[in-house]
Design goal:
The chain is α+β, with helices and mostly antiparallel strands and about 100 residues long. It has one domain: Aminopeptidase. Helices cover about 25% and strands about 25% of the residues. The chain has two helices and four strands. The chain has a four-stranded mixed β-sheet with strand order 1-2-3-4, covered by helices on one side. Strand 1 and strand 2 form a beta hairpin. The longest helix is centred in the middle third of the chain and has 15 residues. About 15% of the residues are buried.
Length: about 100
Amino acid sequence: MKSRVQEDLFFVGTIGSRIVATAMAGYDGHRGWIYYLAVDPDYQRRGMGRRMMERAEASLKKRGCSKINLQVRTSNPDVISFYEHLGYSNDNVIGLGKRL
């Protein structure tokens, strides 16, 4: 459970008492990762995702992280464009996974 491991890398964006965005990052001592970023559709395109990423990046940098990785499905061009706008680029790697 993320709330017990690196809880300072779990971010919640609120407006009033409403949760409108979340982000979860991690750092293994070598690379930082953005695992999940989500913004309520009613609040997208208002800078909330950018602000969540800025907080995650700053927190990872504070830990000594020099590079952040994240994965986006190739079938999601809007999200790819969002991250490219924030300065991320294609590392030309293939993500592999195995379900246990």
